Amino acid sequence: MSGPRFSTRAEYGLRALIDLAAHPQAAPVRAGDLAARQAVPVHYLEQLLSFLRQAGLVRSVRGARGGFALARPAGDITLLEALTALEGDPLLAQCLESTAKENCPKASACALRAVWEDLTRLLKDRLGSLSLEQVCQEQLRLEREVQPVYYI
Question: Does a structural domain hold residue 99?
Fold first, then answer.
């Protein structure tokens, strides 16, 4: 059995944003290069980049030297903002959706609902407190620590 989790849309989209944050001064990154570095199917990544562009998180540049770059500094983009662009409002239980609240006969007297609301608030607070720049810096630190393994 699996519990609540974010989809590959969130995982791949966040990885792409972290990759773009790691190259802030470089030329725009081609979707194919980004997809190869992140081991993500290029067509799927292009769809995710479109969502991120529509949300104002990335910008696209046309032409031979075109590609994608962050639309704002990585320090100004939160994980909550990125996840919301990719998946919508992160809710830990279906009953927290506005239509579910109206359709659930137990909504006004449900102890679990209060737990889900509290946990969702904590999740959003944490995601809202983490910038893309912070996560990118941690990613770069981890990559520096990894020693290549050579097989003979």
Answer: yes
